[in-house]
Amino acid sequence: MSPALRFSVLIFITITMMLANLFNMYAVIPYLDKIEHLLSGAWEIYEFVVDHLFGLHSQNASLTDTMLDIICGTVGAVVSSIYLLYKARVVTNNPVA
Asked: Which pTM was predicted?
């Protein structure tokens, strides 16, 4: 992953979590938490660390919430991997002239 893309992802995660916690967006936007996990496999670690460092409650003190988040992250990773594999095969079979 390029440094610019990695930085963009980290900024997205930070801003999303800050806004979600500050403005109670988890209650306003249904499944926001699951959408975030489809986009980021490291989200649970981030939530855990931020919750413990700053006394927040992003994980709702729930094993079910954590497990569903991990499942959504895994599904997102699998779907992304299949798409990238497909794209790699298309590029290999159709070289640019």
From this structure: 0.46
